[in-house]
Amino acid sequence: MYRSFDVLVVGAGFYGATVAERLAADKGKKVLVIDRRNHIGGNAYSEFDATTGIEVHKYGAHLFHTSNRVVWDYLNRFTSFTDYHHRVFTSFKGQIYAMPINLGTICQYFGKQLSPAEARCLISEQAGELQGKAPENLEEKAVSLIGRPLYEAFIRGYTAKQWQTDPRELPENIISRLPVRYNFNNRYFNDTYEGLPVDGYTAIFERMLDHPNIRVETGVDFFTIRDKLPVDMPIVYTGPIDRYFNYHEGELGWRTIDFEQQILPVGDYQGTAVMNYADEDVPYTRILEFRHFNPERGYKDDQTVIVKEYARFATRKDEPYYPINTPGDKTTYLRYKQLAEQEKNVHFGGRLGTYRYFDMHQAIGAALKAVQKF
């Protein structure tokens, strides 16, 4: 069976689907796409809730944004986009603030009207707490960027929940910058192009993979068929790189997310799509309310779908979402990368295959570049 295909793509997320579509449509290759899940789309998979009709992103909110015109034009072959602009709010001690931190956040938190220049001066003074000392942990790095008051309010508790670790015990290189806007712009992203797919995310993948040269098989684990593959079959592998090598060099660290979904008998639970919770004594990091991603659809107003997110360290049985990337992880990954370079006919790609976090547009862009080498 497998010899009838030119390429095997392992994983039907954005990286794998893009590679498969380009190889089939542009290179004329016959491509077999497999995914161990029972659906295509990877973590971008979405489905319409049977009770409410509301589209739910099953693996957390996915907001498409990019300034890469090539990626934008490519994806627009398979979908059109709404004019949705993402905005995030955070709850701290019973007050709601705009995120990322902007002039409105600063004025509200400090309880006074400030001009942009006055706000810059205030934050600069507060960020000088270390007095030139090099930051030795995440807390010190954050304080050096935005000062202690804003750090304590909006970063400390949220970060501790995300990483399940005191920020004073996290390395300073986890964050390189914390955006502060000295105006009232509360758009979350600054990219040229932004929106949500009109027909939902899953429809994108259905169209991408709807090609006579592509066969898709879901519910298939690569490691159960590995020994049956021709030894010279080209493989695009987008799964965890440490799993591919049977954890020979050790396990890479990942964070995962537990999702708690509820259907509530109200038309609007929180008035916005994403509400972060900065208080450390609130166990979840944020609540998503999916109806607000697509107000143009006119969902019924008698019920709504919310999802609470809880972050924790991933085990082998969990879905890995975010690379932890400690110095030890980086050293381990480099050893895996050296092993990967010795694998004949195997290309490692995507978030899991390269142990790096990709936004959706970055995964597509990387896949488009990778296809040029085939």
UniProtKB/TrEMBL annotation:
Q: What keywords does the record list, in alphabetical order?
A: FAD, Flavoprotein, Isomerase
Record-annotated UDP-galactopyranose mutase C-terminal domain positions: 153-357
For whether the record's keyword set contains Flavoprotein, the answer is yes
What Pfam families is this protein classified in?
Answer: GLF (PF03275), NAD_binding_8 (PF13450)
SUPFAM superfamilies tied to this protein: FAD-linked reductases, C-terminal domain, Nucleotide-binding domain
Signal sequence residues: none
Which cofactors does the annotated protein need, by name?
FAD
**Per UniProt, what is one GO molecular function of this protein?**
UDP-galactopyranose mutase activity
Give the record's GO CC terms. Answer: cytosol
Q: Does the keyword Flavoprotein apply?
A: yes
Q: Which family does it belong to?
A: Belongs to the UDP-galactopyranose/dTDP-fucopyranose mutase family.
The record's listing under PANTHER family reads:
UDP-GALACTOPYRANOSE MUTASE (PTHR21197:SF0)
Give the NCBIfam families listed for this entry: UDP-GALP_mutase
**Protein name per its UniProtKB record:** UDP-galactopyranose mutase
Q: What is the lineage of its organism?
A: Bacteria, Pseudomonadati, Pseudomonadota, Alphaproteobacteria, Hyphomicrobiales
Name of the coding gene: glf
